[in-house]
Amino acid sequence: MLQSKRSVIKGEIVVVRSHGQTSGSARSSSVQIFSASTLDPKTGNGKLSEQAYLRCGKTSTRNGEKIIAYTFEFRVEPDFGFPGAVLIKNQHKKQRFFLQSASVKTPNNEIIQFDCNSWVYPVKVTKTSRIFFSNNKYLPNQTPEALLELRKKELIGLKGNGGRERKEWDRIYDYDFYNDLGNPDKGPEYIRPVLGGSDSNPYPRRFRTSRPPRIADPSTERPPDMIDLDMNVPPDERFSSKKLAEFISSSIQAVNYCVIQKAESLSQQEPNTFKSFDEVHYKYSGNRREVHVEGWFQKKLKNVLPAKLFKEVANMRKKNPLRFSSPQIIAENEWAWKNDEEFARQMLAGTNPARIRSLEIFPPESQNGVMSSIRQSDIEHNLDGLTLAQAINQWRIFILDHHDYLMPFLNRINRNGVCGFASRTLLFQKSDETLKPLVIELSLPGFYEGHELSRVFVPATGGEEGAIWQCAKAHVTANDSVYHQLISHWLQTHAVVEPFIIATRRQLSVMHPVHWLLHPHFKDTLHVNALARTILIKSGGILEKTLFSAELSMELSAELYKEWRFDEQALPVDLLKRGMAIEDEDPDNPTGVKLLIKDYPYGADGLEIWTVIKTWVSDFCTLFYADDDSVVSDVEVQAWWSEIRNVGHGDKRDKTWWYEMTTLSDLIEALTTLIWIASALHASVNFGQYDYAGYPLNRPTLCRRFTPTEGTFAYALFLKDPDQYYLNMLPGRLETSLSVALVAVLSCHASDEVYLGQRSLPVSINNEEVHQKFEKFNKELKEIEKRITQRNANLNLKNRRGPAGIPYQLLYPDTSKVESRGGITGKGIPNSISI
Asked: Where does the record place the Lipoxygenase domain (predicted)?
């Protein structure tokens, strides 16, 4: 009789068999349900159902992945109440599986979904089961009592204590300094300072792996082997198998490309210098014959990659070989890179569009009080009839400033066979809103403190003066390339976001609505950052080999972190700070700012993207927070924000510019800024790299000669052959091929990328209003796409295309992106920093 009163609960879990490197069967697993409404007084948790074992159900295929739906069934007492969480035990001896989703059907036929999308490892390995909560989202003080302890235990289990090295299955999040960049075991030339935790080298914290220390220096951490693709990153933070295969495939192509260059140089016994502009164009135009020399590399990969992954990589390269097409900078006009208007336009619409600022004081002055050597007579004749005072008062003079931060480093930089200057470039806004360069100042440290050796160059189009002007522009572009890669790209997106991810995992339960909001904006970032530390920014890494800052690169990055402020990463605030916009009190303008250059592609498109992100965040937050008090009383959000400030960005804990997080406005502004950085800001500085830097003459990364000075031997060489002098000044063949290969890989979208306005699965939240607000967000992004297309077609907006004919699409959302549309597209805003 008692048995007849028990209710039947049926359920289903969906497992992806081909997700990740290996995903096994779930048939050896069991399921239990926690009640959300009935408390077990013995455990303090929700009442736990009996155990049910999975039965194999339907098998299907989606996007090339095998999907298996397992079913289960058990009975519960009448007072069991509403299901709130599922407990999954993987009882296989060794095999893990990827759990995509779970659902149960209650006796009254209500379907309850559970947040999953996670790896489940065997209990025998992890010594613990996995708990997944329903897709109802609660603020901490609204959590059903029966789930409260489970919510707390979930977060406790995710926090590390700095202990043992992480295992493959560990879901532990903790912080560490950047103590894994150097390799003192290889010798003194590979020693690098620890970044973070000091006044001299402050830095955001990274994800702790707890790998063992170096032998030569116990304060530094031993990095993984190059081929350790998991990088001690929690399993749910890793690339999918498809993305990993694409990444390896494109990297093979990059290695192949460099090997071709080296093989040709060796076979022809050529010096490491280009002989003509025609040679550069031939090698990097994408029109050269296909050469295959990668077999040796494939054999090495076969020895170190899992068999299944190697097969997937091999098949992918066979079906879809990645080829270097012509970068857009030369696709329509192979000499556009020499054009002064294009040189200036890229400061507004290129890969580093957020460094330029308006000039408020003339002449420019260094932070140490040293005045620029630029004089009024150098520029006033070129202001289209305006006086200097009139031009400044009308906000028509701008500066690209790479002076103050470089000066303290130049003596050390120039010991290494490179010839670096600190630069200032002044520009004038013409009546058609295009910019023209006025003057370039190149400076070196003088013979005593406070003294500088500076030269000033003015535009010229022919003869010796024109050739020297091109040399001066190359030095400016090298400065800008270093700043772009180390600061605009790595530091201000990748590095600064990582502590936010760690804090979110540690302090915000998956039941928290803010966790749900942020989750898609963190996809793959921890993994790609770990790869970057091992391949790009480590001692002897690719950036040290290709940038003129070489082994000082990360020190330079730490120096500029001193200037970083989270509140100034909000686009309207950034534009105001740089004098690229003024405040606008028009109530119909939600950004509160007005661009001084209306035809500023990054600013114009960016403000529209910023506005719709902020609207979406505001709509979302107001569904869960009634007022300021509800933000203050949210213990998880308060702990999250405190940890970001005091630990994740702990070297800036005492700064007064941090949001107090005492109002709903604070929360909305912080979340909007974070999502902007992870999505649109990163897209704007990353996915155009190949189109602009894939042609080395447009964006050299270092110079090997100074601009020639009359009366010197270098000037005699210059007069003999100005073109060859210019080519000898640029990076050599091997450095160039490595740099081009790198930007090609970084510019590739993954085929499984998820873009702004999309989620990887149907919106997994039990809230119809959220669904409606998200759909509104998506529709607004589609409208922005239409307006961007219209602006790019408007011939009066000359900065949208410029002499190179490159339409500005780096902030084009591309909400129509679908599976298999990866590669180099020059457009699309992924949700996260995923490459």
From this structure: 137-835
Which of 291-305, 476-490, 756-770 has the weakest average pLDDT?
291-305
Asked if residue 99 lies in contact with residue 25, where contact means CB atoms within 8 angstroms, the answer is no
pTM of the model: 0.94
* Range 481-502 average pLDDT: 98
Q: Which residues pair with 85 in a beta bridge?
A: 34, 133
| CATH number of the structural domain spanning residue 73 | 2.60.60.20
Whether 802 maps to a domain, the answer reads: no
Structure tokens that stand for 731 in this block: 């990076």
Cα dihedral sign, 697-701-704-710: positive
Q: Which of 106, 140, 174 is the last residue of a domain?
A: 140
**In this model, does residue 783 exceed pLDDT 80?**
yes
Question: Is 342:328 a contact under the CB 8 Å cutoff?
Answer: no
Q: Are strands 65-76 and 52-53 parallel, antiparallel or unpaired?
A: unpaired
Tokens linked to 232: 């001690």
Nearest CA-CA partner of 28 in 124, 131, 167: 124
Q: Are the beta carbons of 348 and 341 closer than 8 angstroms?
A: no
In the beta sheet, which residues pair with residue 122? none
Domain end residue (candidates: 140, 171, 203): 140
CATH code of residue 703: 3.10.450.60
Residue 406 makes CB contacts below 8 A (sequence gap 6+) with: 420, 421, 422, 423, 479, 556
**Class of residue 642 by CB neighbours under 10 A (exposed 0-12, middle 13-18, buried 19+):** middle
Nearest CA to 115 out of 67, 148, 154 is that of: 154
Return the structure tokens found at 405: 């931060």
**Does residue 420 surpass a pLDDT of 70?**
yes
Beta bridge partners of 357: 399
Label residue 623 by pLDDT band (50, 70, 90): very high
350 with 476: CB under 8 angstroms? no
Give residue 443's identity as a one-letter amino acid code. S
Nearest of 595, 594, 567, 588 to residue 665 by alpha carbon: 567
Q: How far apart are CA 522 and CA 516, in angstroms?
A: 11
CA gap 124, 779 in Å, rounded: 48
Asked if residue 811 lies in contact with residue 689, where contact means CB atoms within 8 angstroms, the answer is: no
Q: Active-site residue numbers?
A: 489, 494, 682, 686, 835
In the prediction, which pLDDT does 62 show? 74
Q: What gap in Å lies between CA 791 and CA 776, rounded to an integer?
A: 23
How does DSSP classify residue 55? B
Q: Judge contact between 104 and 33, C-beta under 8 A.
A: yes
Task: Say what the pLDDT of residue 288 is.
Answer: 47
In a domain, 278, yes or no: no
Task: Please state, in angstroms and rounded to a whole number, the distance separating the CA atoms of residues 533 and 538.
Answer: 6
Sign of CA dihedral 226, 731, 253, 557: positive
Of 17-26, 228-237, 318-327, 621-630, which gets the smallest average pLDDT?
A: 17-26
DSSP character at residue 49: -
What pLDDT was estimated at residue 664?
A: 98
Residue 813 confidence (pLDDT) above 60: yes
- Residue 162 burial (CB < 10 Å; 0-12/13-18/19+)? exposed
Token pair 């589609």 is at which residue? Answer: 782
Q: Please give the structure tokens belonging to residue 452.
A: 């500088």
Q: With respect to residue 124, please indicate whether it lies within any of the assigned structural domains.
A: yes
DSSP state of 321: -
Question: What average pLDDT does this structure show over 200-223?
Answer: 87
Residue 736, C-beta contacts closer than 8 angstroms, at least 6 positions apart: 261, 274, 696, 730
Would residue 545 count as lying in a domain? no
What are the pLDDT digits (tens) for 123-134? Answer: 988 888 999 999
Which domain range does residue 88 map to? 7-140
Confidence of residue 645 (pLDDT cuts 50, 70, 90): very high
Domain count, the chain: 2
The pLDDT of 72-94, averaged and rounded, is 90
Percentage of residues in the chain with pLDDT exceeding 90?
68
Give yes or no for residue 318 having a pLDDT over 80. Answer: no
